Amino acid sequence: MINRVIRNAIVALCLLHTTVVFAEESQQVAIQVLDENGKPVEGASVEARYLETIHQNGKDYTVPMDLAERQKTDKEGRCQLTLYGVSWKLAGLSAHRVEVTTDEAIAMLEDAPKDPEKRRAFERDLDDQCQRYRSSYLLLDPDFDRDQPIALQMERSVKVSGSLHVNGKPIAKAFVTIHSQKTEIDRVFTRSSPDLTDDEGKFSGYCIPGNLDQARIVVERSDGNRVLTLSDVPSTQTATGKVYRFDTQVKDYAVVARPRHP
Length: 262
Fold this sequence. Notes:
Layout: H1 2-22, E1 27-34, E2 45-56, E3 59-66, E4 71-72, E5 78-83, E6 91-98, H2 102-109, H3 116-131, E7 133-140, E8 150-153, E9 155-156, E10 158-166, E11 169-170, E12 174-179, H4 184-188, E13 195-196, E14 202-207, E15 214-221, E16 224-231, E17 236-238, E18 241-248, E19 254-256
Parallel strand pairs: 1-8, 10-18
Antiparallel strand pairs: 1-5, 2-3, 2-4, 2-6, 6-7, 7-9, 10-11, 10-14, 12-13, 12-15, 15-16, 16-19, 17-18
Helix pairs in contact: 2-3
């Protein structure tokens, strides 16, 4: 009886030891973020994500998941990410830094001009600075060298603006997203965000540099969302950025019914 207990204990220890040996371990990776001129970027937000396959209702879905806790770079543009102990086939790194943070904008407002007209111009310029950003994206190879630091070189965002018309009439409160054709890194990170048109159908914002040859327009209405996806979208290059003008017809929109909440 005692021999059996000892034998079972030894087997349990061996199994435990085997589990530890073959378990994925978290690993630290050194990152340095540089701007387009090769200078360190302080305060950049650095993320790592991977694609995980989720099985639900008999179907497989790929979902981006965090591969590490988000970190901020120091004055030298450096930080360390501790990668979670998970296995993956597709993963990537992202670095993002707005030109002016919310705290910086609040501090700048304290020195804003007192003259009403000059103050409005100051606030418009400040709002534009808060929208501008630099970013960098990098795919990770599953066999990349964890002991070597990784450099992420940022690019400035590109300003885009335009207007949306349907049957010659401006469409207000429509979400317009300008983006490039999707690559593998786009499966891991969302690299474009929508801009909301005003009462004249105008929109303005910043995008990741690229071909920017596609657009997605979502118009929310009580009968459902009207969605239009366009490719090979022509633009006009101006001194302040790229300008798009969309003249479409109602029949071009596909109506997506809104989900009903119980």
